[in-house]
Give the backbone structure.
Amino acid sequence: MRTTDKETAVHRTVALGLRQNAAQFTLLVMVNALVGGMLGQERTVLPLLGEREFGLQAYSAGLSFILAFGLAKAATNYFAGTLSDRFGRKPVLVLGWLVAVPVPLLLMWAPSWAWVIAANVLLGVSQGLTWSTTVVMKIDLVGPDRRGLAMGLNEAAGYGAVALTALATGYLAERYGLRPAPFFLGIAFASLGLGLSSVFVRETLGHARLEAAAHVARADGRHDHLHDQLSNREVFVQTSFREPALSSASQAGLVNNLNDGLAWGLFPILFAGAGLSVGRIGVLAALYPAVWGVGQLVTGALSDRWGRKWMIAAGMWLQALALAMVPWGDRFTIWAAAAVLLGVGTALVYPTLLAAIGDVAHPAWRARAVGTYRLWRDGGFAVGALVAGLVADLLGIRAAVWTVAALTAASGLIVALRMYETHHSPPRDAGSLTTASPHQQDGDEHQGRR
């Protein structure tokens, strides 16, 4: 099958490295910020909307939008990797933005909670396609040497935008009401994202093929059994269960987003029950992803120097400590401190898990491994909605937070016991590999698609 990379048709040089691809990398950072903004439009407003406008009483019913979002995003993440290997990264990215266009309109004018659920199914599909693809494209561009930094920049942009949008929607909701004003931001984000992705983003599949052609096995022989010709089923089994580092990362990602789903769906209701205004709830809803987003500018690069394993374990334990502070606290200052700690812990974990997947997975099936990891990670939203909702209905919100804190601490222990250090120094010239031959890229296509 002929490659979809149009740049090969005009004999464009392909190079690996952050500096060599600075313009496209920066553009993709901007695009992912818009992806994060689409998610951020819900963080403050939607839990309050379910309680105040639609009269939802059961916590599990109120969390149903997160359950729908998590299931849709998790499933789409898996297929996004396979589709981007088969058809190219850019078409998948553009498709994701097309799916996003009706989301803010549905949220603005939904006559019933079922419409909100439908909007979140579309949002989950869109996020699975767009966020997964921007991750894979950045990994393609930078090569093996700067993956942690690349993932830190990617996730910082996305979750920084989540924070800013949560803060902005909290202000708009307090001033103009829960609907429709806060969702005007989503219309702007979807329009910009679709335009930039359609016109200015370039295909990166050729970069992955170049890295696959120059792939060097680890000196310790750890990945000798992970050759480039794995089927979709083999990639799923290795990433989910069999390979120690990949499977450890997958379970940690699931638990990380389990506690994020709890924070998204129940924290605003807990804070409102304590008498906080919508504006102050918006500050708390923004503080956690803001620290998370900015922190990744540091933690992603540090994992390139210090390694992945212990940053992940430490981050999970710090998240558990922060979650335990929430049911213990009863005022804004304590919850703000907990939000900061939760953001720091998540910043240690989030880009580092993606970088670890990139370390272990062969370039020929890396997109599918990222898709499988993100299937489990974003499945955590659905698991979190079920666990937190059921425990909250039975025992109260504070008991639900304690439960998720314990699960998060156990996840860090699994990483400490099962995961090995995945980061190793690549060849000195790995960041400057180049090719100017489109014919060579076409020749590598069969190997790169396996």
The radius of gyration is 21 Å.
